[in-house]
Design brief:
The protein contains 18 helices and 15 strands. Among the domains are: 190 residues, P-loop containing nucleotide triphosphate hydrolases (Rossmann fold), CATH 3.40.50.300; 157 residues, no CATH class. Strands 2-1-4-5-6-7 form a 6-stranded antiparallel β-sheet, covered by helices on one side. The relative contact order is 0.13. It is 57% helix and 19% strand. The chain is an alpha/beta fold.
Length: 553
């Protein structure tokens, strides 16, 4: 509910602050007095675009502030989602600077224009000739029917199912796309994998082969070296190293009894003898078993050639990298083999979710269709009271079979203002005045069962007078029992129905024309309604008529 509106340096308004109450507030004033300025300022704080032309001449900036009681609107989730501080009494401020910059704040937190506009739509419903055109839009029509059918809980459940279904479909589409990409690569992947798989590489193999290659290519030198060493150790004719060492040990043992240190040397040499003897046996074995093998050299050379070729081909430097690449290719090929199964599983998931979604869409569609006859009868009665007799109204539904965010239905409002004229699509058959009255009827019906935001009627009563004007005013008044209603009007019958009355007027100040607004009560209010009845010259009859209108509330 709008509690307060403060306007500073907007167009012809220097500064004014207006307090709003619950129920019905009527705003009146002569043509050109500034009622449109007031609506412009309110629209500005609700997120509409503006330029520096709204800044009062000679000033640096325009500021519009509004305070709302949002406690009944369940908006905390919106505030949390947009990182705003929630308060039951929320303040919105909009500033337009002469530099062309615009700033907006919600409870002193800066917000962008999109967020401000979204919040504004949750707080107010501005109903004018322009906004009435929305009634021709399909989404708007479905929204009205759903509100009347009380489909809110069904739609919320549907929205969750719709989101899960969309996510599963998106995953399936991505998987199928990926499968096609991999399928195009599969032949190439298999070729690369087969090359590496055929090689049967193992960790450390390259180093082992390179060492063996060096040995095989120097086989003669190695055999000669081991043979010569073996000769010196165990095969020399003039006495081997081991024989000489053994003899030296024996000589030292002879003197150990009277030269103890000789025994220590003998023991150390004995250990050396044992070690050399082991070495000699191993060298002898190697000498005897070392043979030149052209076949083995050819194998090692070919194996190393294969490894070097693969490294060059795959642009790596080690066998470990080739082995890692082999594993990676195996995983990709496994994905190729398994992706069809994954897609089938996802198709089953999508089908199951679509089944649940279809059931929910059927419930929504059933609620909509059941609501239409009741809605139609109510609209007939209201339109008749507003001067459109013998009207025809109906709703055409088509199950599109395509799931949309609000169900599967496509809808058209059908209308004719006369019983002998066939109904046609509402946007093509109804005049502006008829659209306004139909929209008012729909909002009136919904106000009884839904918690609607503050609704502002901006001179939708143009072209209406007499008894119908009184009935329209009575509708505004009854709507205001369930919500805050603000009505800008030029009809005295409507103005008399208000719980609160504000007057917009022009006056001269400091040599300039200014617009301002003030509350009217008592005799001031009666005189304003009398002036609306008779013009500038207020007659006694007009005053009496004004009193009667006021007393009829």
């Amino acid at each position: 509910m709008l509690l307060r509106l403060k306007i500073t340096n907007y167009a012809l308004i220097s500064e004014t602050e207006i307090e709003f109450g619950d129920g019905l507030t009527v705003i009146t004033g002569e043509t050109g007095a500034g009622k449109s300025i007031l609506m412009g300022a309110l629209s500005l704080v609700l997120g509409s675009r503006a330029d520096i032309s709204v800044i009062k001449q000679g000033e640096k900036k325009t500021v519009v502030e509004a305070e709302f009681d949002v406690s009944a609107y369940n908006l905390k989730g919106f505030f949390d989602a947009n990182d705003l501080d929630y308060a039951d009494r929320t303040e919105i401020r909009r500033e337009i600077l002469d530099s062309g910059k615009s700033r907006a704040f919600v409870n002193d937190t800066p917000v962008n224009l999109a967020t401000l506009k979204e919040l504004g739509q949750l707080l107010t419903d501005i109903h004018s000739q322009h906004q009435t055109l929305e009634i021709g839009y399909e989404d708007f029509q479905l929204g009205l029917i759903d509100a009347y059918a009380k489909n809110g809980a069904l739609l919320a459940d549907y929205a969750q199912k719709y989101q899960k279904w969309q996510q599963a479909k998106s995953q399936l589409e991505s998987l199928i796309k990926r499968a096609k990409e991999i399928a195009r690569e599969a032949e190439y992947l298999h070729f690369r994998f087969d090359e590496l798989d055929k090689a049967k590489l193992r960790e450390g193999e390259q180093q082992e082969l390179e060492e063996e290659y060096e040995m095989l290519t120097h086989n003669e030198d190695i055999k000669m070296a081991f043979s010569n060493a073996c000769d010196e150790l165990i095969r020399a004719e003039e006495g081997t190293v081991l024989q000489k060492l053994k003899s030296s040990i024996s000589e030292l043992r002879k003197i150990a009894a009277y030269y103890p240190k000789a025994a220590e040397f003998a023991d150390r040499m004995d250990s050396t003898y044992i070690e050399l003897n082991d070495i000699a046996r191993e060298i002898s074995d190697i000498d005897e078993n070392t043979e030149y093998s052209p076949e083995r050299l050819e194998f090692v050379n070919e194996r190393l050639g294969t490894i070097y070729q693969l490294q060059k081909k795959f642009n790596v430097n080690t066998t470990a990298e080739l082995i890692a690449m082999h594993k990676d290719l195996a995983q990709k090929l496994s994905l190729v083999d398994n992706i069809d199964g994954q897609a089938d599983d996802l198709r089953k998931t999508v089908a199951a979710l679509e089944g649940d979604l279809g059931k929910q869409a059927d419930l929504i569609a059933k609620g909509r269709r059941e609501a239409v006859p009741r809605l139609r009868e109510e609209i007939f009665g209201l339109l008749e009271s507003l001067g459109i007799k013998d009207s025809q109204f109906d709703v055409q539904f088509v199950d599109t079979k395509d799931y949309k965010p609000n169900g599967r239905d496509s809808v058209k409002f059908m209308f004719s203002a006369n019983k002998n004229v066939p109904m046609g699509e509402l946007s093509k058959t109804a005049s502006g005045g008829e659209l306004s009255r139909l929209m008012l009827s729909l909002k009136y019906i919904l106000s009884r069962s839904s918690k609607l935001p503050t609704i502002i009627f901006d001179e939708i009563d143009t072209g209406i007078s007499g008894d119908i004007a009184g009935k329209m005013g009575a509708m505004f008044r009854r709507m205001s029992e369930h919500m805050q209603v603000i009505c800008i009007t030029h009809l005295p019958q409507v103005a008399a129905k208000g719980n609160h009355h504000l007057k917009v007027y022009k006056h001269e100040a400091d040599g300039a024309i200014r617009s301002d607004i003030k509350p009217l009560t008592g005799d001031d209010r009666i005189r304003e309604i009398a002036a609306m009845l008779s013009g500038e010259k207020i007659t006694d009859a007009a005053l009496q008529n004004a009193r009667e209108l006021m007393n009829n509330n």
